[in-house]
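Page 42, continued from yesterday. The earlier attempt failed because a stray header line got pasted into the input along with the sequence. Redoing it now with the clean sequence only.
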Amino acid sequence: MSASGISRRTLLRSIAVGGAAVAAPSLLTACSSGGDTGGSVSNAGKKAAAWPTYTPAKGAAPDLAATAEGVQAGFTKYPAELVKAIAEKPGSGKEKIKVLTITYGTPPKGPSQNKYWAAVNKALGVEIEFTVVPDADYRAKMATVFAGDDVPDIINIGGGYVLPREAQFVKTRCADLTEYLSGDAVKDYPNLAGIPTYAWEGMGRIAGRIYGVPVERPKPQDTLYFNSGAFTKAGYKAGMSADDFAAMAKEATAGKKWALGASATAYFGYKTHANWFGAPNEFAVQDGKAVHFGGTDEFKAMLEYLAKLRQQGSYYPEATSVSQVDLKTQFWNGSVLSMTDGFLAYPGAAQGIKNAFDLDALVPYTADGVTPKYQQSRGNFGYTVIKKASKDRIKLILRVLDYLAAPFGTEEYELTHFGLEGTHFERDKDNNPIATELGLVESKVNVPFAYLSDAPQVLYAPGFPDVVERLHAWQRKVVPTMQPNIRFGLQSDTYNKQGAALQQLIDDGVTAVVSGRKKVSDWDGIYAKWQAQGGKKVVDEFTKEYAAAH
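This time it went through. Structure tokens are written below.
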């Protein structure tokens, strides 16, 4: 669910969670041509491999420092001098590697007609042969891959999908990377060593072993972005009480402007508000047992509060039907004064707003008797696995992934993220790389090297240094309050099979209560249905898995 938000990417993830996995065919025997299901993928009873030793990779010095807790490095301007991260090409120029990844863009022309793709291939010393799968087709394609014998050399399992028998496929058909990455072994790949531990933890182990490389995303998950001027005029203050926030939202709503934006796939931003009311970040452990937020008093208090905000008219009236894409436009043009979005939506939002108002992120309000917490993300967009192969082949592929993970401020990062200067980008007066017309087509969106492996994200919004400064200050306040979702990185057979349907029960129930179609008192019945249809079993399985992993 990053990662890497309810930005365009998270909108698509939300759609996936809403029913994608349910529609996928059963893959009980899809892990090998011989029907071997791969055995148990549980970490229970297995010795846990040490996570890679974290060593920040050497990129450009930031303008705003990162912290050990997870506040991102901030760049108010593009580095004037780039660092070279890779001494030698990963390949000799003779190797070919077949890869498969999701895309949210347009499937590209081949490298003979694509200067960006050709340039990256040349820098890698490897001919990368992409199978680029549009999001709409990704689930069906992965079902085919899981069931067949034709497995690409590299697969990115991303986009937030819950794929049936995913862990079993990885354990059976993909290389165990523990000996190459665990502990100090990762130092052979210094850019992979620069991936923060939380990203590896969010990926998780399978049967105690490390099978993938995470594609890092920052710690903040869904973020309530707001129109700073309008909220401040209505009385907003960081950390204000929940009652004062409600009064402020009512004051800010007037004419054809609404304080709170929401969409059909944002579900009133309830996951964010639940944390602020003191509920778990979906799943937590209390007194040695897994707890799901839907069964807590704090969650019901949050529902009552959001229903109040809806009833007083502070939410956009079409919140249950408007698309996230259209909601963005309404936020940018000032029709709605706030919206929940994925954290990484901020560069696009800054560009869309065009300095019409100051973009900021909300510091949680405070409910009575509660210390608000903040949603910590899974820490990655997904993870990349390697087909079983010889040691030399695996090391070659890891060198490729290491190149693609070169940090911001390096020559390698500039190539993989912006392409060739003069061809794919030009520099503006402040040295920021600005895409040319060709660069918008031949890009990391349409040729998604960045979904195979990527550097840790930094705060950077070309042309909007004030946004970077505000978000860095905001992160310093909220990152220390973050709570993880213990589901990330754990294995539950029931959740793997039924997680999407269970999530839809919660989402639909929240929408019904907040919109007024059902009462808060009806939530107990909704939640009992969630428990009966597999939720209770999921909680039990996560309890055992968490104990095994800690």
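Notes: Residues 1-36 have pLDDT under 50 and may be disordered.
Reminder to self: strip header lines before submitting.
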